[in-house]
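Quick question about two entries, pasted in order.
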Amino acid sequence: MRSTRTARLLAAPTAVVTSALLLAGCGSDADGTAELSVQAAYIPQPVSDTMAAGFLTVVNKGDAKDELTSVTSSTAGHVTLHRTVGSSMEQVSSLDVPAHGQLVFKSGGNHLMFEMLKSKPVQGETVTVQLHFAASDPLKVEMPVKSATYSPKTGH
C-alpha cells in the first residue's frame, strides 16, 4: 500500500515535468530563424529607358518564415514587388518566404519592377540591389544584366 501511495505522489510531479519538457520542445520550432540566401538573380536587358524587370530566387533553409518587404537599388527611383495572378499583374507590399522553401521571381510570375531608371542597364553590367525583410537582416545582391532573350536553366 505504501509503494502505491508513493507512486501516486510521484506521478503528478513527473507528469508536470514531462509536459513542460514536451512543450519546450514544441516551442523550439517557433523560436527558429530564417536562413536566407539568393540564387539565379538576373535582369534581362530592358527595352525601355525607364523600366526594367528583375528575377531571382530567395531560398530559406531556416525553421521560420519571413517576408520580403521591399527592394532598393541606386539604379532606379523605385523597385516594386509584383505578382501575376491569371493574366494580370499587381503590385504588392510584401511576399512570403516560407520556412524550408523558396520565393521565386520569374517571367510570368512574381517579379521586381525597376521604375524611374537613372540609366538603362546594358548586357554585361551588374545591378546591385538590397532585399529588405520583416525579420532578417537585408541581403545585398548583384544582379547581372543578361540579353533580353536570356532563358536561365533554372526555368525563370
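Here is the second entry:
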Amino acid sequence: MATPDFIRTIRASAGHQLLWLPGVSAVVFDDTGRVLLGQRSDNRRWSLISGIPDPGEQPAVCAVREVYEETAVHCEVERVLVVDAGKQVAYDNGDICQFMDITFRCRAVGGEARVNDDESLQVGWFEPDALPKLSDHSLFRIKQALADEPTWFQPTS
C-alpha cells in the first residue's frame, strides 16, 4: 500500500510505534447489484476499496478518490454504513497502526473497473452470493450495505 507523505513524516520521528489513523472504506455497487473488490498487492487478499484521508480531506471525498485511484471506477457516496475502530495492524516493516474506519455505501456512476495503481493485483465486480474469500469484517460491511438499516456502531452498553 502506498503510505501517504504525511504519515512518512510522522513515522520519521515516531518510529514503529502505534499510530491511530483515520480510514475510509467503500462498498461500491453497480447497476446490477454487483460489489466492487480489489485484490491487494501487499497481502494478496480480496477486500473492499479503502484508504487514508489526506489532512483536511472529508471522508466521503476520500472514499470517492480512493475508489477511482485504485479501480478507475467513478462513484457517488449514498450513505454511511459503519463507523468502527479496527484492530491493531502490524506491517512487515514493523509499523503498527490502528484505524478508525468509516465505511460508505457507494454507487458506481462511470468508468470501467481495472487495476489503476500499484495497490491492487486485480479488481472486479462480484455478485453478493459469489464473493471471493473475504475477511469477516468485509462480509459484515457488505451485509450492512445490502440491508436498509441505520449506520452501525459499537453499542455503548
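Reply: The CA atoms of residues 35 and 114 lie 14 Å apart. Strands lie at 19-29, 35-40, 46-47, 49-51, 74-85, 89-90, 96-110, 120-126. Hope that helps.
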